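Dear Dr. V.,

Thank you for agreeing to look over these. As mentioned in my earlier message, I'm a first-year student in the group and I'm still getting used to reading structure tokens, so any feedback on how I've presented them would be very welcome. I ran two proteins. I've put each sequence directly above its structure. The first is here:
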Amino acid sequence: SLTLVLTACAGMDTKGPWGYPLAERGPVVDDYHGTQVADPYRGLEDPDSETTQAWVQAQMNITNKFLHTSARNKLKERITKLHAVERFGAAREVAGKVYFLHNDGLQNQSVLMAVDADDPKSKPVLVLDPNTFTQDGTAALSAWAVSPDGKLLAYARSEGGSDQRIIKVRDLGRSQDLPETLRHCKFSYMDWKADGSGFFYNRYPDSTGKSTIAQHQHNKVFFHVPGQAQADDRLVFEHSDPDLLWVAQVGDDGRYLVLQGYRGTSPRNRVWLLDLHGEAKAFSIFDTEDASYDYIENIGATFYFQTDKDAPKNRVVAVDLDKPGALREIIGETQDAIESVLMVNHRFVVNRMHHAKSQVSIYNLNGLRIKKVELPGLGSVTGIRGRRSGLRFMFGFESYLQPLMLMRYHFEGDRVEIFRSGPTPLNVDDFVSEQIFIKSKDGTELPVFVLRPRAVPLDGKAPLLLYGYGGFNISLKPHFRMRWLPWLAQGGMLAVANLRGGGEYGEAWHQAGVLGNKQNVFDDFIAVSEGLIKRKYTNKKKLAIIGGSNGGLLTAACMLQRPDLFGAVVSIVPVTDMLRYTEFTVGRFWVSDYGNAKKDPAHFKFLYAYSPLHNVQPGTVYPPLLITTAEGDDRVVPAHAYKFMAEVQQADGGEHPLLLRVESKAGHGHGKPITKQIDEYADLYSFLFQVLDMKF
């Protein structure tokens, strides 16, 4: 109860000028391959205990007192005004209509709209409004698929930021949902059968009362017929390996169901096929997880894949079912990594990254490059959508200063059109967007995007916010993000670093930042920080670093390794306990990047060497720190933030603010309503403006 929590708060010991509540320390010690490792804050892993809740409440009291100033109120007004512009999201063409996401600016969740594909200027109609799911806007549309005939919509919704989903089916003619609800759909996706009779989806068994590991095992593929109960869904595919997650995709010819199995976040996967017109028995074509094999399309019994097999920057290969072990190269590897490939109009649409910027080209089926698609500028291409026999395809284009535009390419006339676009909240001419290169500790060249106000001189005095991620093969390309605007509007500079561990230069670049190579990522980020200072973009006192999830691990680790280098650190939903992360929810899915300290002595050695929780040094003066987490985060559980903050506050030898922000009815970040985003940004910039002495 609240009374018990407040009573527990009142009895807590405190430390330092900010009165940090000292968490209860326990005698827990774990043995890792002969090394004894203390875990005194194990109790904070229980989010429901009265002790944990009291400690969190005491932390939030300190945080709110520091952040909630009169300047923050003005800042929130400014952020709200900047957000109040029309925005667009993912688009795809189905049955003569283009479906796309739209937000008027301040809607908590973007709505799904549809417009006549041949008359894009006609008035769109509302298809689904996620803002009606709940009163507070905390339920989100997390996936959707329109039936081939355009009559039905299968959609997934999640609540409170959870990865768990339910799937509903909507009759688009009547604008009503059918009665069934499909559950246990964590990380689930849907794809319709060609005749529209139903859709395939993957899900876990009912895991009520089961362990964390058991809750994420035995992912299977089912077929759902609209209108029937989930209990009647037909099991289509299951694999003997319980740890694989399966994604089902129907080829454009409607004959084959392509089943791609993934072990956590590893890009290496398995591929099985099911002939929907033949025997109902699946068979494998890639079943060793020796490389990534991303299905593109098939023509008859010839299947095309994007793969990094013998090509770290990816290539396109063909596989004939009568010779399943033989790969025929269609489009070879080049110096620019292939990010995605789609077959449209019986041609390959290839999206490559040139120093983390998109380039799109069209090839014939023999692998001959036909043309380059002209883009509006240097930026990112996302969401390419089209069909094998189609004459056009949709895609999104954006940059750091250009909000996402929905675009469409027509093969007839080699024409690109802007299908939908919204205004830019800031005057683009007032800013400079540039790419520089900085060498890391070992000489590796690192691309860095920099956005800066044109009127601010390069004299080393400007505040600069440096963002990084460096993991899971994720590429940081130029994307427009509303959250950066308040910073830029106040004269701040923004830098985004492309670090090893990402996917900007292919799988070799990714592998250079995983497992025992993870220290490369931290070295890269530190080198970029030093390089920006050396080039007079900023100075140590004005340099702030920020990252989320794996990027939160990045900022935490760099703060510990170089506490003298930063004026402020923001660590959002961070992974910090690298020895026990596999014990929480889906943590074991990340082993391919991080390793497993419990099972492998070599992994324990390198994880223990950088794990933020285990490398806090008593008496060190740490820079101002803001850690954020959310009660509903079922991906990176709040315990990572709680334990790390308890350790830092206990050990710190300085007087800088070390603040913990905990959000309710939210998760890892996806699907967060605009109202919560604005509050989060207001708190974030209230913190940065104060500790960096920026005026508002």
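The second protein is here, in the same arrangement:
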Amino acid sequence: MGRGHSRAAIVAACGIAVIQMTGACASLAELKSRAAGNTSLRTAEPASPAVPVDASGTRTDLVETRWGPLGDADRELLVKVRQAGLWEMPVGEQAAVRASRAVTRKNLGEIARQHARLDADVREVAARLQVPLPDQPTEEQQGWIAEISAKQGLEYDKTAVARLRMAHGKVFPFIHQVRASTQNTLIRDFAERAAEFVNTHMDLLEDTGLVNSSGLPSTPKTENAPDVIPAGQPVPAVPPAMEAEGKPSPPMPSSGVNFIDTPTGPLSAADRDFLVKVRQAGLWEMPVGMQAATRAARARTRQNLQEIAEQHGELDALVIDVATRLRVPLPNEPSAQQREWIEEISAQTGGEWDRVAVQRLRMAHGKVFGLIAQVRASTRNTLMRDFAERTAEFVNTHMDLLEDTGLADASALPPPPKVADPPALPDTDLPDAAASQAPASGAEASDAPVAAGDPLDPPPAGEPSVSAGPTGGAGLVETRWGPLSAADRDLLVKVRQAGLWEIPVGEQAAVRASRAVTRKNLGEIARQHVQLDADVRKVAARLRVPLPDQPTEEQQGWIAEISAKQGLEYDKTAVARLRMAHGKVFPVIAQVRASTQNTLIRDFAERAAEFVNTHMDLLEETGLADATTLPTPPPVTSAPDPVPSGQPAPTAPPATSLPSA
């Protein structure tokens, strides 16, 4: 996604045709003055020079909303995401037809489809926060569209992938900086969703095989990047750092300035510095989290900080493994500043212990979060790429846990990223059009707090959610979400039983499969089925539908059949059984979604379909899902013959035609 944007394209003139808003536009100076009078928030450190402050150091870019203060960087993020979609969607749609390679057509088409969902998301969030959005790409982005459209053949693919990858790499750190620094819960959640999209898009672009070093942004600045231990010298046991210091190293092959060649790609100084930072984070956060078990005054603080410590144990083992494979020495002590934080926290008692511990931890996590994104976006090393993605998940979870304590106020947040040209402030006098909007359906909605009267909210006391017996058509039962059919209930059972055999098979395959891609993909299927299983049990409980606790006899037979195999036959059998099962249930989910009268089942079917579709992709990516693993195709009523070679292909209907080459 592109970072730059034209001021005129955003909102220099309030009459721009963007999201429909009611009321007159106040001047930027007037609104900022109003914002300054509504906030007394402070920061733990001097604010970034890019953040406007008054004489007392109070930020003047903040506007109060029902979701918390909204800053310039928050609004800038919404504009950047909107404009990214305005150029990446048409490029992706065009590439799905014009690209010369199948993988480019597939992956860029997928990016366009995902951007359509992200665009709907950003427009909804902006409407709630009353932030005007542009309806045109920037001039620079329009130039990229023209540049790409003018190419032919493989050059088209290369140019499109290069432009898209560079744009995504530049915006990725900005999203993470906003997530780490925002005080607005709506922006916080949106930034998390946007980061997932951008990360997926970078993966899709890299999967084309056309992303080289020229398509990557600059690496972040480094503070303490250790040298790699040369081949021929033993890799020291952890802690390794001190033994390697000061000793001359034989020359190592290099891919350029600050790069070292490794089997997993060039390793930069920023990559090595990142490993050190992750290691040192664990060296101070683990003891603080363990200390919380006895010192914290509040149960929530004890619980959440202990969870952070336990997760840092996993992350520490991971960073040690990666560093060992890349021959990067790691420290065995926190930094001097981190030791001071430990002492500062340890000196507190009661509620003050909780407050100081949460504040220090949240500030530290917020600062490293943007660095992770920069490393992920810029690294040329595949091992580091995967490690950065996993680290980002840990850090994001830790920020959620810290915020969940209720003690991470504005002073615990790092300064927001720089905003060269902030969008206009919303008019806080306008009515809140989003106050009455129901939460979006989907997995996120099911996990979010719901307001009274929401369709997912349990019924009030004394009001049954399901009637005593069937009413109406065959098998229909009345519920507060609409009639529940036998097919609806059968879907819940099928999804539950799918998890009961696919989770153990996936977990077993993550260890026993002979090929790395099988281990990785089937392990991922198992992890996703755990989420889906929690979802189906929640929905079934609301609808009072009993669920089985055992797989069917046939599914138990599949488990036994797979478990009896060895080597590559194990991989083939597991993938074949899983792909066939997913292929059979997929149309059942679609039929239920199309026919159900129950809104709870409708939303669940949509979520289940996303899981199953992803699982089929993962199974097909193993290269072992051949024609024998696919179910019988559906009957056809009118299948036209293809146009023979040599005859002109019919023109696409106007609704689906694309710009000509």
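From my reading of the second output: Residues 118 and 194 are 7 Å apart (CA to CA). The two ends are 23 Å apart (CA to CA). Does that match how you would interpret it?

Kind regards,
E.
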